[in-house]
Amino acid sequence: MKQSSLFTKTRKEAPKDEVAKNAELLIRAGYIHKEMAGVYSYLPLGLRVLHKIENIIRAHMNAAGGQELLMTAFQPKENWQKTGRWDSMDDLYKVSDSSGREVALGPTHEEIVVPLVKQFISSYKDLPLSVYQIQNKFRMELRAKSGILRGREFMMKDMYSFHADEKDFSAYYEKMKGVYADIFKAAGIGEKTYITFASGGTFSKYSHEFQTVTDAGEDVIYVCEKCRIAINKEVRGEQKTCPQCDGNDFSEKRAIEVGNIFDLKTKYSAPFEATFKDEKGQVRPILMGCYGIGLGRLMGVIVEIFSDEKGIAWPHAVAPFTVHLIEINPKKNPVVAKEAADLYDELTKDGVEVLWDDREMTAGEKFADADLIGIPTRLVVSEKTVNEKVVEMKLRTEKDAKKVAREKIAEHL
Ligand code: ATP
Ligand code: MG
User: Fold this and answer.
1) Which atom of ligand 1 is nearest to the CA of 91?
2) pLDDT at 85 (0 to 100)
3) How many angstroms separate the CA atoms of 181 and 179, rounded?
4) pLDDT exceeding 70 applies to what percent of the chain?
């Protein structure tokens, strides 16, 4: 893509009311636009990153046997009354129309997915089943000061699994622990992400959160480096040792939950009478698990971790483009313009995603923008490089550029 045709421009300052580093950098670089507290639009660059994250998650969900669907954001009030959450859920947005009819704006989808799936499950032969969606959620977050880490409207992948017995549920739940670890590794935050014991388990004592260590986090966790697991401070209670190795060598860290997995047992199947007939013809309630990941939160965490005073430094897997191609003074030297155009065509044909800075700006301005936007590899074509038959190549994470022979550049990438 030519940068001259990108409608967003970088800016020196983020809005004054923006205090989160992730949003500040993403706004300045043109990835997102703040509409109000906790509500952000994704602009072309930002949407490219979001799609990369989405595709990583989708591939893993499909491999885990998940069937993708898309449920509604508008949800019937009756369903929420049935589970009691119409009154008990503090962060539920309730919307009413001119006739006075009220509906919920979905903060999560148990109230939709259970009655839906109930229509299709009658026998143990219909189980197990797992379905998921990637969709916007709405929550009345009171403190929406963490940029895209905590939105009032935000994108979530939510998966729901349905099982005939505890053994089948547990096997799936264990499998999802591995799938989640793989997702965060693929997105580039594996090293800083810990499976964390938290409260709220139904079968077991714990539920499991995936917490990424960052100063921007709102949670405090205790990390056992030996086992690479953690406990959430909220649940620590009597648990003063690592639940796995029983060691008490914990370090306290700030972290944010990027995903979680939860055993729901019959919490939602019971109120909706979602049942099935087992082998003996006996009617039993369906057992459930749910598995969430916040896509915007994941993107925000990546920015919090992979950034410096100059801007963002995207991990390869989620970068909006792979290469930022910068031409310097093409007007002065038409050979530079031709060389950049050729390189762009060549790389694009090879399937490399290139953002080509073809704007009329000084080298300094272009470099500053490239550092802010944070594409992993920067290529520079200038009068000097053309004369030397090289291209200057620099990784965003490295300080110095190196010269690569023009004909070797594709190989290097
Ligand atoms: P938190 O404790 O941070 O509010 P939660 O327990 O409410 O999270 P869940 O209801 O389990 O979160 O939602 C599943 C996932 O959705 C979370 O693991 C997180 O990644 C993401 N998420 C939750 N709330 C938000 C939000 N307000 N903005 C962005 N992502 C969110
Ligand atoms: Mg919450």
Assistant:
1) 7
2) 97
3) 5
4) 99
- The reply to whether ligand 1 has any atom less than 6 angstroms from the CB of 258 is yes
The residues, ordered by sequence, that sit 6+ positions from 405 with a Cβ below 8 Å of its Cβ are 389, 390
Span from the CA of 294 to the centroid of ligand 1 (angstroms)? 6
Q: What is the mean pLDDT of residues 166-189?
A: 98
CA of 154 to the centre of ligand 2 (A): 12
Distance in angstroms (rounded) separating the CA atoms of residues 388 and 405 = 9
Q: 284 forms bridges with which residues in the sheet?
A: 276
Position in ligand 1 atom list of the atom nearest CA 108: 10
Please state, in angstroms and rounded to a whole number, the distance separating the CA atoms of residues 40 and 55.
21
Report how far ligand 1's centroid is from the alpha carbon of 44 (Å). 24
202 class by beta-carbon count within 10 Å (0-12 exposed, 13-18 middle, 19+ buried):
middle
User: Phi then psi for 207, rounded to 5 degrees?
Assistant: -105, 175
Peptide bond into 243 cis (omega under 30): no
Q: What is the 3-state secondary structure (H, E, C) of 204-227?
A: CCCEEEEEEECCCCCEEEEEECCC
What are 326-342's pLDDT values in tens digits? 999 999 999 999 999 99
pLDDT at 271 over 90: yes
- How many angstroms separate the CA atoms of 358 and 413, rounded? 21
Report pLDDT digits (tens) over 376-385: 999 999 999 9
381 DSSP β-pair partners? 327
**Ligand positioned closest to the Cα atom of 150:** 1
Q: What is the pLDDT of residue 201?
A: 66
Torsion on CA atoms 47, 50, 52, 57, rounded to nearest 10: -150
Encoded amino acid at 6, one letter: L
CB of 260 within 6 A of ligand 1: the answer is yes
> Does ligand 1 come within 6 angstroms of the Cβ of 46?
no
Q: Write down the residue that tokens 């993403």 correspond to.
A: 26
- The strand pairing partners of 251, in sequence order, are 223
